[in-house]
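Researcher: Sequence recovery benchmark, item below. Answer with residues only.
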């Protein structure tokens, strides 16, 4: 062997660039477009044509995306997709009486062959069982939402919604509208699993479900743009500072800040007091509940389940709901607002704190138990010092939230600055509302900066 051969540099092989989700965007759109176009052949071919074009679209998209599949995998996918096209026709041969749960689930059942075929192909390529099951579930979930989505966009019209004399028609357009949703989600999940690009499935699902929700809620960008010409700020600006601050400036000093009503308590100071009291009490109750709702520090399983269930129940209800409940119980005053904010603080703080306790190191607790310490003294000595800085930081964060929420609950009569805002809104005094909002924003911002500074010092 010559010296040149020994000393010649070894050629460097550049590694293949990682695949990006956007690289599968065009193949995905082509596959969906071919499949949706195939819906035009559903009725004359008894669903076989639709299934065949769906399968063709999926395979063409994989070819465009340079995803290699064996002959067996291609056959399995094609058979499953063709079978789903036929079943979709057989299960929905005519206009349904109504798009109810049973009808939606029946249409979802038509896509079981596609789900099974996707799971089989993904599993043969060495993916984890969870990935294959998620892809299969995506086909079924999309099938369940397909008919409601088609009805929402105004394509599918069930018999119950037809006007008298209108001819019921369930044709290619209905299959195409349902196919957009089914194929949009199902193909994205299949491609994401085969290419290991979960962002593709997530992005496609978010776009489709957002579009479905926008149609369902009547979201109209054109209406928003068209109403810009109707905006009139003459009643908002300039703010009426004389009413808010007063000529002498005594508005700033409690208890003389009365918004023109000396017999009433100071509304802004009332808001701050509600936030303080509710933060202290709510966070105080959350401390033991957080330990009971943690798998690390709960004394037993029943206690953990009861505490966790109670916190889930509390967290389900928003702050305005609690305000309405307590206003009906104790009247329209600051006490109702304080009780509502205690429930709100407890829900937020207990969840954050219990998750922090779950992440604490178990070693010190196990060591304390090994010395013969009882459960709660061991938790206090071994776990509390680990999570106390986070607990204080979360408490300050909850106080920030309570400042904002306390200004809102007054709208339903639970005291605070919201009571004044609602009164001025009722009389269309928007210049006063703007002045109040500006001043409250400045004060809340200052209090938040102080809270942020304290949290940084603690952590």
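Model:
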């Amino acid at each position: 062997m010559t010296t040149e051969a020994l000393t010649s540099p070894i050629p460097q092989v550049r590694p293949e660039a990682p695949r990006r989700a956007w690289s599968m965007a065009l193949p995905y759109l082509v596959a969906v477009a071919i499949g949706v176009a195939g819906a035009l052949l559903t009725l004359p071919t008894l669903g076989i044509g639709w299934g065949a074009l769906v399968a063709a679209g999926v395979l063409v998209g994989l070819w465009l995306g340079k995803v290699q599949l064996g002959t067996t995998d291609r056959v399995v996918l094609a058979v499953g997709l063709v079978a789903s096209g036929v079943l979709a026709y057989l299960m929905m041969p005519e206009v349904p009486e109504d798009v109810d749960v049973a009808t939606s689930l029946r249409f979802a059942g038509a896509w079981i062959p596609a789900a099974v075929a996707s799971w089989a192909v993904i599993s043969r390529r060495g993916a984890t069982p969870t990935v294959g099951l998620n892809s299969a579930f995506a086909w079924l979930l999309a099938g369940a939402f397909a008919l409601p989505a088609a009805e929402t966009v105004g394509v599918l019209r069930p018999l119950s919604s037809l006007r008298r004399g209108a001819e019921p028609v369930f044709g290619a357009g209905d299959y195409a509208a349902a196919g957009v949703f089914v194929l949009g989600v199902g193909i994205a999940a299949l491609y994401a699993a085969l290419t290991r690009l979960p962002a593709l499935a997530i992005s496609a699902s978010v776009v489709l479900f957002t579009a479905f929700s926008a149609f369902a809620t009547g979201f109209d960008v054109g209406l928003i743009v068209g109403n810009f010409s109707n905006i009139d700020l003459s009643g908002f600006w300039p703010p009426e500072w004389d009413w808010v601050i007063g000529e002498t400036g005594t508005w700033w000093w409690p208890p003389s800040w009365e918004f023109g009503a000396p017999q009433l308590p100071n509304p802004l100071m009332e808001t701050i007091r509600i936030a303080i009291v509710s933060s202290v009490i709510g966070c105080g109750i959350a401390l033991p509940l957080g330990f009971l709702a943690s798998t690390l520090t709960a004394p037993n399983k029943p206690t953990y389940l009861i505490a966790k269930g109670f916190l889930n129940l509390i967290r389900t209800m928003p702050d305005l709901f609690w305000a309405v409940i307590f206003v009906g119980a104790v009247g329209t005053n600051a006490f109702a607002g304080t009780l509502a904010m205690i429930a709100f603080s407890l829900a937020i703080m207990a969840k954050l704190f219990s998750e922090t306790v779950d992440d604490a190191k178990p070693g010190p607790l196990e060591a304390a138990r090994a010395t013969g310490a009882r459960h709660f003294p061991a938790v206090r000595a071994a776990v509390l010092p680990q999570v106390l800085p986070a607990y204080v930081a979360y408490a300050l964060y909850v106080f920030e939230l309570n400042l904002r929420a306390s200004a809102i609950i007054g709208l339903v009569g639970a005291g605070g600055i919201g009571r004044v805002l609602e009164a001025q809104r009722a009389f269309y005094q928007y210049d006063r509302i703007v002045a109040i909002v500006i001043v409250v924003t400045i004060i809340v911002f200052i209090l938040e900066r102080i809270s942020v500074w304290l949290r940084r010092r603690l952590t």
